[in-house]
Amino acid sequence: VGDTTLEPDQTFTISAMVENEGSGQAGATTLRFYWSEDVNISTTDNALCTAGVSVPDLAAGNSSNLSQDCTVPASQTIGATYYVGACVVTVVDEFDPTNNCSAGVAVSIHYFDLSVQSAPNVSSNLVGSGETISLDTTVQNSGTQVAPSTTLRFYWSEDTSISTADTPLCQAGVTVPAIDAKSNSASLSQDCLVPLSQTLGATYYVGACVATASNELDTANNCSLGTAVSIQTFDWTVLGTLSVNPNRVNSGETILLATTVQNTGQVDAPTTTLDFYWSQDSSITTADTQLCTAGVAVPALAAGSSQSLSQDCPVPPSQTLGATYYVGACVTTAPSEGAVGNNCSAGVVVSIHTFDWVVQGDLSVDNTVGASETISIATSVQLAATVQNIAMAAASSTALRFYWSADDSIATTDTPLCTTGAAVPALAAGNSQSLSQDCPVPPSQTLGATYY
């Protein structure tokens, strides 16, 4: 076969050799060429050319080379594979007529196949409604013949699967020139407007489709996937660590809270509110206890701008003495805000004031005594802060008791000395008081023994 890649209605040359394999003279006959859908050629296949080729008389063992120009049958399937073969007409008294047909030679019908090679390149993946963006992509012809000129259009979609049903970008597409066969390509670009009224912060996709041309082999690959683009938005963020003054507080006491709010987005942010919160843990959310009845007004801020804000708020009442809590801030989410997961700060530790009694130093006592003898015992007590060098709350009045023990580890389970203890007055944070009491030694103690 002169050309194994053909076009419908194309004329092509077919050649074959007819041989007389017998031992006697073969009479003249006819050779015909056939078009088949499989490799097995027979006279029931589609004959090529109206008339066959004359085969002359052939002596035993002789052969004849024959050829003919035939036309590809009309209406063949683009891109499909067919087979061309030949059959010599049986003559009278032929020994074996079963070998009169050749095997088929594969031929294919020329085709072109346009495809958009990849998702378009976009000049910016962060865009504004009505903004001009530059788009470019490559169209390829993977077929066996030249693809005719057509049109490439860019599209705006809500998902990554691009089709001609999506919103076209630009009123007119880009002209795709005729592209040669065997994977030749053309790079194309266009500047288009982002459609108006897109949702701030939302993600969309930009893709491209090449218009189907007549007789194209595969039209399912004419569109690319989409390239993600996001619409510019504003984004409120609470920056850094909250300032809390003081960090050691009383229930109901007023504390000064301060922080900075920033618009980390790309467009102006509208006004909103900053609220401070009291929490049991460091993860601050708007479900925590709000400090102050009303928050602080956050002004409208341009992209990248920030604002420092502060508020005096009372500590919630009835907090546990000595316990640790957390204070944080959250800026109220505004409609169409980009990210809303960064609107709250981390919590800053605060603790509630408490008091702590401690008996200081060694007890002053007469070390040698008799049973039932009265001894003079003196010591001092001091109210000490839970945390050293930090002022704590005042301690209410209480009692100091002296104990008699068989060892130096003193506890209230030991034997109390004196019927009543010594009164300890209420003491301000950090203050101390010296106290003494005369108590009798318990009776029936072992002579010579040591007690505490």
Structure description:
- It is built from no helices and 29 strands.
- The chain has strands spanning 5-6, 11-19, 29-36, 46-55, 63-71, 81-88, 105-109, 114-116, 121-122, 126-127, 132-141, 150-157, 167-176, 184-193, 203-210, 227-231, 236-245, 248-249, 254-263, 272-279, 289-298, 306-314, 324-331, 348-352, 357-365, 374-383, 398-404, 415-424, 432-440.
- The strands form 8 sheets. The protein has a 5-stranded mixed sheet, with no helix packed on it.
- β25 (357-365) and β26 (374-383) form a beta hairpin.
List the helices and strands and how they pair.
Layout: E1 5-6, E2 11-19, E3 29-36, E4 46-55, E5 63-71, E6 81-88, E7 105-109, E8 114-116, E9 121-122, E10 126-127, E11 132-141, E12 150-157, E13 167-176, E14 184-193, E15 203-210, E16 227-231, E17 236-245, E18 248-249, E19 254-263, E20 272-279, E21 289-298, E22 306-314, E23 324-331, E24 348-352, E25 357-365, E26 374-383, E27 398-404, E28 415-424, E29 432-440
Parallel strand pairs: 1-7, 10-16, 18-24
Antiparallel strand pairs: 2-5, 3-4, 3-6, 6-7, 8-11, 9-11, 11-14, 12-13, 12-15, 15-16, 17-19, 19-22, 20-21, 20-23, 23-24, 25-26, 26-29, 27-28
